[in-house]
Amino acid sequence: MTTVQLSAPAVRPKVVARTGLHAVLAANVVVVTALFVQSGQSANALILLGRLAGLYGALLMAFQLLLVARLPWLDRRLGMDRLTSWHRWVGFSLLVTLVAHAVLIVSGYAEVTSLPPVDELVTMATTLEGVLRAVVALLLILVVGGLSARFARRRMAYETWHFVHLYAYIAVFLAFSHQIGLGGTFTSSPVATAYWWGLWGFALGAVLAGRLVLPLWRNLRHRLRIAAVVPESDDVVSIYITGRDLHRLPARAGQFFLWRFLTRDRWWQANPFSLSAAPDGRHLRLTVKALGAGSASLRALKPGTRVFAEGPYGAFTAMHRTRPHTVLVAGGVGITPVRALLEELRGHVVVIYRVSRPQDAVLLHEMRDLAQARGAVLHVVSGPSNAPTPHGPPLGARALAAAVPDIRDRDVFVCGPPGMTGAVLQGLRELGVPKRQVHAERFSLAS
């Protein structure tokens, strides 16, 4: 085995990004609280608490925009799956603060006017500027939040889910206009006004830059087209993408793009597919297994078809390595980023490829050739997940330790379906593999 020295960064990129986001949020909470106190507003306790909840809600709304802006610096360090998870939890916190804001404000004013809360809400909505817009914004956020719950999300296509989330931007606009119209803290001082304009300008500017300007600029620059469509098997196809100056595209092995193939019947569909080969500056390759009507139709794409790609996205890269040697664990179509990583990684690599049946092993011939060329070890694990083995479950702690005795001294990259990924992560915890050495990517997208 060749010894490779790896100088791990003093502070891991993931830690830097996570700590930075927490620090930014905490600092803004302090600023918002200080501006609220300095505004010197007087009212009963319910109204004051309601106003403070509304300000925290506005801050969380801006923070949510930052999490889904797809800024490259954050995405490369944290990954879209982690940012999506944080976005979801911040969204639930936002719902709580905004509902609290509405209930406390209405209850507080109802106490002052001696009207029933419902009558007070109707009066406020029909007589005060911006209140009706705030009510509509809250209803939109409640709808989007309800459709973001897992049981609802799983029943929608990505395009439908994405379209519904566009209403959240309408809610942001309505909420901000409400804050301008009635927010006493917003106009209490030039400093407060400058802060809130700056906060919303930065959040919306980040979304505009990350989700519109940067993708448009990259696609105009690189002019991507399909170079070849190569069947790998009856249900697997590889698509080779070419373009201008691809060596300037900051893509790494392990990352993915949102691909739009600009044909009459597909231009509106955004498909998240990982690179199945390390970028070489001349081509990008993705390999797709027919899991639905959309992916099955890719075989019919023609060379020369224009491609619009958003990305690269994902933190499943060698950037996060901490140890000289590596274990790569892939399940199903999760083999595509793992196959690309195998090309780039240095040091000794062990690959564990989990499939239900041997014939389901996508790109197996390439994996064998690469493993032989790189001096890596390849284990193909097939059969039912409950099949008895001498070492327990196929990807349990004992099986992982048997396949890789020194697994505690390696980085472990895991990519595959949620069930498989969860089983591997549980096994790694039982084996005592340090958390900083475990790098997992689940199949999920930010809205």
Neighbour order of strands in the largest sheet? 9-8-7-10-11
Helix- and strand-based class? alpha/beta
- Low-confidence segments, given as residue ranges, are 1-5
Number of helical segments with 4 or more residues:
14
> Between the first and last Cα atoms, what is the distance in angstroms?
44 Å
Domain count, please report it: 3
GO molecular function: 2 iron, 2 sulfur cluster binding; flavin adenine dinucleotide binding; metal ion binding; oxidoreductase activity
Cofactor: FAD
Main location: membrane
Organism: Saccharothrix espanaensis (strain ATCC 51144 / DSM 44229 / JCM 9112 / NBRC 15066 / NRRL 15764)
Describe this structure in words.
This is Oxidoreductase. InterPro entries: FAD-bd_FR_type, Fe3_Rdtase_TM_dom, FNR_nucleotide-bd, MRET, OxRdtase_FAD/NAD-bd, Riboflavin_synthase-like_b-brl. Its cofactor is FAD. It is a multi-pass membrane protein. This protein is an alpha/beta fold. The chain folds into 3 domains: 13-219; 223-313, Elongation Factor Tu (Ef-tu), domain 3 (Beta Barrel), CATH 2.40.30; 318-441, Rossmann fold (3-Layer(aba) Sandwich), CATH 3.40.50. It is built from 14 helices and 11 strands. The chain has helices spanning 13-38, 45-67, 72-78, 80-113, 117-127, 131-148, 150-153, 158-182, 190-222, 293-296, 335-344, 364-374, 397-403, 418-431; strands spanning 225-231, 236-242, 256-261, 271-274, 284-289, 307-313, 326-331, 349-355, 377-382, 411-415, 438-441. The longest helix has 34 residues, at 80-113. It is elongated.
